[in-house]
Amino acid sequence: MSKIIFNEHQIRQLELNPNVASVSDRSIQYTGDFKVRAVLENQEGKGPSQIFEEAGFDLTMIGRVKAKSALERWRKTYQTHGTEGLLTERRGKSNAGGGRPKQDDSLEQRLAKAEARIKYLTAENELLKKLEELEGRAKRTD
Questions:
Q1: Domain total for the chain?
Q2: Considering the entire predicted model, what is its pTM?
């Protein structure tokens, strides 16, 4: 996730841009049309900074790195899924679209994880009890 955090004024400014679908304090979702147009312009030789600036974005606000990385993602999606991949939301779709494969832990694995967690929490409780005891002793000696 981006280290840039947008304030309310910046969010309102970004929302006015017709190439923006939605904005949060940490991310911008661009319209599918803008993504397609940006990839095609990039293939014609325009750089990410030029594309974003011509589309009305203030790169000092969103960051040149963000523009570059977004365009890199869109190029990969375009190569894999074509224009349709940029026009439709792909996050959360089947594993064929990428992402983490679902973990299908066996019963033995789940039991081992649960036992390890119980052991950890028990040790944590013991440590807290010792800490409370030491704090109590320190208060009595004061």
A1: 2
A2: 0.61
